[in-house]
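FORM 7B: Structural annotation worksheet

SECTION A. Query
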Amino acid sequence: MSPAANREQSITLAALTAGFNRPSSRFRLRQYISRLAESGVIVKELMPFSDKTYYFPGPFKAVTRIPALFRSRDADMVWISREFAVGYETFERLLKRPRILDVDDAVWLHRPFGWFAMPDIARSMDAVIAGNAYLAEYFGKYCKKVYVVPTAIDLDRYTLRPEPANEQRDKFVIGWTGSSSNFKYLDTIEPVLNRFLREHDGAELILTADRPWEYSLLPAEKVRFIRWSAEEEVSFLHSMSVGIMPLADDKWSRGKCAFKMLQYMGVGLPVIVSPVGMNREVLDKGDVGLAAGSPDEWYDALVSLYDDRSLQVKLGLEGRKVVEQFYSADIIARDLAYIFKSLLVS
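SECTION B. Predicted structure
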């Protein structure tokens, strides 16, 4: 099938997501719905009947997906955001075919039975869409069709950071965004952050998450917490001078899709990141920030940006260009539309 013919074909797709505010739902599926419609792929998102899945133990979380399972049968194909219940195989095989699994983490490491469940789930899929090459390599052992599709940034929302107001120009704001489950990575660089904040006037740390980070070393007057909300996430990024993304070098971190890093870059921020997994791949695409693999490298990277405001601007603008070229939601939506239509006729 030619690309032109592929674009002309219209299909309906049921997207089974994990909930309204889940990052995997928002950024791996929902942000493409209107864009896919422009390519003739009509997506209907089907969420669990309750967002409070923590009330359901273990595999019983999948019960909240049963209505979506039945409603998805009217679509031409089914697009699933991860497994239905973390660490278990449940109703995935009952979905209408063709069925596509979308993954943006090393989900086979989920306890208690991810190592056993994910190969079986992958074998039951017609295709897997993986957020990076590391994930694709794993799922390629169990599914014949695996596509690498990175998580994208909606550049209509993630606008360039404006020039700071006069009273903000002497501040150096280190920023971090994420879920509290990732505070363990901040813990690893807390001594470095403590040293830097105490030694540099105008430096502060701001964080947004579902709850505050319980640090022990940092000067409290130099740390601000803002509770995360979808409405404020972009304005939060605009208040930063640099975005940080520390990681451990382990199997779970190698499965991450550098999304925090891409968010920072999308608004024109320089980044300091652990050169692990996809972080390294993004760093290699342009002069977008600094890699930090040791405490000394983290400290030196912070000092370099603190001392050179022109470097902040240069790296930030290059980061925005890299996102525009490789990780824009418009580009990724076109890739997804082609994949879906190809699967329907294959």
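SECTION C. Observations
The longest helix spans residues 309-326. The CA atoms of residues 111 and 327 lie 31 Å apart.

SECTION D. Sign-off
Analyst initials: ____
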